[in-house]
Each structure stands twice: as C-alpha cells, then as structure tokens.
Amino acid sequence: MIKIGNKKISTNVFLAPMAGCTDLPFRLIAREFGAGFCFLEMVDANSIIHRKSRLDDYLQSTRQDRPLAAQIIGGDLKIMLKAAKILVAKTKPAFLDLNAGCPVPKMTKKKAGAHLVREPELLYAILNELVGGLDLPVTVKMRLGFGSIDRKQIVKVARGCVKAGVAALFVHGRSRDQGYSGEIDYGTIKAIKEAVAVPVFGSGNIFNAVKAAEMFSKTGCDGVLVARGALGNPWIFQAIARQKDEIVPKEEKIAVLQKHLQLIDKYKRVSERVKIGLMRKTALWYLKGFANSAGLRGQVTTVQSYREMLSFLAGI
After folding, report:
1. Does residue 21 carry a catalytic annotation?
2. Whose CA is closest to 218, among 171, 251, 260, 259?
C-alpha cells in the first residue's frame, strides 16, 4: 500500500498516462492482468476549456475502471485551475497529476510538458493554483531536465514542487532532449528520492519485471510507472508482482488482442476510420515478436474493418 496525500492506494505499480494509448479499453485489459491503479490519458487544458470533440472519449470510464488518476498538461496559468476543476468533476480521480515531462515539441513550444522544468517559476505558480484550488491531492510527473541533466538543479526543482504542496513525484529518468533514447539516470532519481519527503515513483524503460526490480533497487523509489512496457503486454503487471518474467504463448496473445479489439469496438466514441486506425495500432503492439512479425505487421496496416481484422487474426 502507498499513500498519496490522503489517498491510500493498494499498489505501488501504476499504469502511466499515455496520450493515444491508455484509453478505457486499454485500461480494462490492463486491470484484468493485474494493473491495480491506472491513469487516464493525458489531457490538454486547452482541449478541456474549448470542449474539443474527442474530450468525452478521452475521459470515458466505468465502475470497473477504478481506482484511477487524471493528468493535465498545459502552460497557460490563466486557464489551468479552471480546466483542472472541469477534469476533476468529470472523472472523479483519486488525485490529479500535472505533466511536466512530455517531450513533444507541440507541447513544449506552448510552455507545457517538459518546458516546465526549464521554467520552474511557472511550474510552481501552476502548482500553487492547483493545490490551493482543488480538494484532492496534486502530483507532478517530471523529467530530469530539458537539455543536459543538472542533478543539483533538478533536485532543487523537485524540492520546489514539494514546497508548493505536491503529494508525490513521478520521475522519468531522462531529460527532454533525450526523448526515449539513452540510459536511465538512476542516480538522479535516487537523489530526488533522498531529497524529498513525499513518495517518488521511477519511470522509464520498465519493459519487464527485471527492469522494474532494477528501478526499485537502484533508486530506492516508492513505486514505478509502467508506460511503453504495457503496450501489447498487459501481462507485465503480473510479472512485476511475481518478480518473474514469463513467455506468453502466441495463442494467448491473440486471444487477449481479440478481446482488446472487442472493447475498442464497444467503447470508442470515434468515427469508424479513427476506430480501425486504433485497432491497427493495437494489433501492431501485440504482434511484435511473432514469427514473421514484419510480414504480419505489414498485413495489419491494410485491414479496413473490425470484421476483417478478426478474420486476419483467425488465420495466424
């Protein structure tokens, strides 16, 4: 069990927020295989304020999809609290996370995401607004810097976040400029953990139980966030709990993929074109590592309907 603010959570292994990935079908599958706590997809504050057409799809949930947290991204101080209140009212999360880690230029150019660790005064100002204006814990997901990693500076930023009232830190072990390449800087995550009195979760390269154990042992972190390691691999949560990775039979992978596609067909509030695009993307995740995976993945990209996708999978 771990405590974030006044919220007690039964697990310290969370499914991370991933835009375009961790939607309701994804989370329901992950929960079936041991994900005890999940994030909704990251949501842009501007999309909330302007009621973008896909907002309801992003925020879908069910009674089975609990407990969960929400994550907001943005850099406009004038709208962050208003957007956060709408998001909280719609989703009723255990806590709200502010994204200070997204490396995508579309976000950083708007002073959002990883830009906030480069402009910590803006980060603290947003946190002060959120912590003071919301009746639930606020957390931060952050990177170790924007350009090169300056351990002393990022520890100072982490302390500043805690001083602003955050209840936990989710720390990706790379800088913004590293993106998703290069090694994880376990030493700097450890330095942050030792510098603050709130829970610290480690993130980055957690693709299996071995990597999760490595994150715990090398940083002393309180928990881990599983992100890309869960794409097409919901079994990772069981593996981390058992501290043992196992090979999943091809037949089981296909069966779970079929169920995942069924949930997409059932829940996604999008056009058929968008829906089949998501089905193709999902199938590509699961088929990675199959014999002749390159050929199979090529065939997936030509599938034009849900029925056609099921027929294709039946023939593998």
Report:
1. no
2. 171
Residue linked to tokens 């100002």: 125
Identified catalytic residue from 21, 38, 102, 221: 102
Q: DSSP letters along the chain, please?
A: -EEETTEEES-SEEEPP-TTTS-HHHHHHHHHTT--SEEPPPEEHHHHHTT-TTHHHHT---TTS-SEEEEEE---HHHHHHHHHHHHHHH--S-EEEEE----HHHHTTT-TTHHHHSHHHHHHHHHHHHHH-SS-EEEEE-S-SSS--HHHHHHHHHHHHHTT-S-EEEESS-TTTTT-S---HHHHHHHHHH-SS-EEEES---SHHHHHHHHHHH--SEEEE-GGGTT-TTHHHHHHHT---PPPHHHHHHHHHHHHHHHHHH--S-HHHHHHHHHHHHHHHHTTSTTHHHHHHHHTT--SHHHHHHHHHT-
Chain segment 244-270, per-residue pLDDT in tens: 999 999 999 999 999 999 999 999 988
Q: Are 160 and 123 in contact (CB under 8 A)?
A: yes
Mean pLDDT of 139-162: 96
Question: Binding-site residues for FMN, please?
Answer: 17-19, 71, 141, 172, 227-228
Q: Dig out the tokens for 127 from the structure.
A: 């946190």
b/e 207-235 (16+ beta carbons within 10 angstroms → b): bbbebbebbbeebebbbbbbbbbbbbbbb
Q: Encode pLDDT of 103-119 as tens digits.
A: 999 999 999 999 999 99
Strand 138-142 and strand 7-9: the pairing is unpaired
Confidence of residue 294 (pLDDT cuts 50, 70, 90): confident
**Cβ–Cβ < 8 Å for 176, 146:** yes
What is the value of pTM for the model shown?
A: 0.95
Q: Which CATH class is domain 2-242?
A: alpha beta
Radius of gyration of the chain (CA): 19
Binding site, annotated residues: 17-19, 71, 141, 172, 227-228
